[in-house]
Amino acid sequence: MAAPMELSCWGGDWGLPSLHPESLTVMAYAKFSGAPLTVNTINNSWRAPKGDLPVLVSEDIVISQPAKILNFLRKQKYNADYDLSAKQGADTLAYIALLEEKLLPALLHTFWIEADNYCSVTKPWFASKIAFPLSLYLPGKMSREALNRILLTRGGPPLYSLTEVEAQIYRDAKECLNLLSKRLGTSQFFFGDTPTTLDAFVFGFLAPIYKVCFPRVQLQEHLKQLSNLCRFCDDILTCYFRLTVSGHSPAGQDTADANLQKLTQLVNKESNLIEKMDDNLRKSPQHPPRKLTTLKLAAGGEESSPMSRLSP
After folding, report:
1. How confident is the model at residue 254 (pLDDT cuts 50, 70, 90)?
2. What's 290's DSSP letter?
3. Where is the Mitochondrial outer membrane transport complex Sam37/metaxin N-terminal domain positioned along the sequence (predicted)?
4. Which pTM does this prediction carry?
């Protein structure tokens, strides 16, 4: 009997099983290959067994990074690429490299750098998922890491300013989406009727761009013009994650914006409670101020008070 396997990853919303591209990639591959993973949603990456999410644990083996996790699953006989030819395997590696070079920087920018998206969606969503006090720190840390990752690969000559970098990464991302759309064509998946590793990576990168409701949506708008890529994402969500195109579960529960709404309600309740306490204090009987007793001077000529004794 095979050892049980547990996948720790970020949670989901907006009809997605996870908002994290790398977590989505591993989850999709497990579905495609039939790997019996137990998914454990950890909304604080510092609690993960080994650093960054996703993380796969099988007995005493702990593996992070999607490529290493997928290689481990293949060694356990869960291989979604079993029927691919050598050329198709080479094409898979080439397209994955294209995704990481051309599409990933724009994806990171959309989530973590674009001010309107970060302040109104990304930061409050992750803050609502992370326990206090890390919720005050971790989203900012993730944003800084995303910016450093972008500048590390795109911040050198001839692009020096962040504005120039931003314009270039979105041009590259749109070009990448066009190439993916052309390669997919009218096929259900990239290599025919059966999903493979490439389909898992493309789904992991595209689904968050396609589904999350951002105020700044230039990359999402371009993606939605490529109907075959949108259909590709919808088909995988419907067939493999039992989610409808509208982002509802079979029971009809709308998951979109649920966590943000809960967070907003909590803040409103706290504000109302503070206002009510202020009103009660204003309406309570007021007592005249107590007359302060004269403080005696200490031997050194200074006033001896509790505050002075507490001072360092």
Report:
1. very low
2. P
3. 23-142
4. 0.75
